[in-house]
Write a structure and sequence with these properties.
Rossmann fold; 2 domains; 12 helices
Length: about 300
């Protein structure tokens, strides 16, 4: 069997492919695929139609307008994809905001690729789905993925076992600031494994819109910011803007200095191997006396509000 030539169109898929030992086989990637750093050698075959430097509210409005018009948020460069000659394309079919849509990928493969290509589409909603996706990518690449996902499961289980002996903290997670949304999908499971209770999150479902009244009623011990696609610096800036509102600044967690910015783009937003590091970040935030994995300053920091 010849070595696979892989086009990865979503960052989490790129990280899964690399974890399985096929990082060098990536011949094309999405413009957002940046980990591991060596993947930058592969040409980017997608680009966003939205200016991500806009304020969160403007991004939300533009995304809504494009989706309402049944338009993609991304352009797929079929010339680059064709030149890469992939034998496999790994993409996603979970979120229209996250990457090029599956239908567009299938149409491009049929129209522009000369050789047959195997398309692997990922659609995780829960933590277990992520482990299953790792196994599915392994099957497509003809490699046993069980050592990878079993190691990840073991790391999660070890943290959860230690956290169960600690006092549970009530947490509100913020996946978007304008309008405010609480995190969904796998994040509430990570919060629980870290010794927390996600007061407003939607386990196994898309991020719900919330309002300040709901946050006030939840009265969380901690608020963790993890906006989709934002790095640590951008998250901190968004968080300071959100907590400029006296209603948010008056929350007990804010007054106690228990508001935290994280690098959601690198960790929480990517359903791949680094969800375990995301769990480590939550454990450090919620139980600093019990957990220290060295992520403070790089993956998260307290936010002065």
């Amino acid at each position: 069997m010849s070595a696979p030539r892989i086009a990865s169109l979503v960052p989490s898929a790129t990280e899964i492919v690399a974890a399985l030992g096929f990082g060098e086989n990536i011949v094309a990637r999405s413009h957002e695929c940046d980990w591991p750093p060596a993947v930058a050698r592969a040409p980017a075959c997608t680009r966003a139609r939205i200016d991500a430097t806009q304020p969160s509210g403007a991004i939300h409005e533009e995304v809504g307008a494009l989706l309402a018009a049944a338009l993609s948020l991304y352009d797929l460069d079929t010339d680059i994809l064709r030149a890469a000659r992939p034998s496999h394309i790994v993409t996603q079919d979970q979120c229209d905001v996250c990457a090029v849509g599956l239908a567009e990928v299938k149409a491009a493969a049929a129209a522009f690729l000369e050789a047959p290509v195997e398309i692997v589409s990922l659609a995780p909603m829960r933590l277990g789905d992520v482990w299953d996706d790792i196994a599915r990518v392994g099957d497509a690449l003809d490699v046993d993925a069980s050592p990878v996902h079993e190691s990840l499961r073991a790391r999660v289980a070890a943290i959860a076992a230690r956290a169960t002996a600690l006092p549970a903290k009530r947490v509100v997670t913020i996946e978007w600031a304008d309008p405010p949304m609480s995190a969904g999908n796998w994040v509430p499971e990570l919060v629980a494994a870290a010794g927390g209770i996600d007061a407003l999150g939607a386990r196994g479902a898309n991020a719900p819109v919330i309002d300040i009244a709901a946050v006030q009623a939840a009265d969380p011990d901690a608020i963790v910011l993890m906006p989709c696609g934002y790095d640590l610096a951008r998250t901190a800036a968004d968080g300071r803007a959100l907590f400029a509102d006296p209603a948010w600044a008056g929350l007990r967690a804010a007054r106690a200095g228990a508001v935290y910015a994280t690098d959601g783009n690198a960790f929480f937003n990517r359903p791949g191997p680094r969800l375990v590091e995301s769990l480590e970040i939550l454990a450090e935030i919620l139980h600093p006396a019990a957990f220290d994995f060295g992520h403070r300053g790089a993956g998260w920091h307290p936010l002065s509000v």
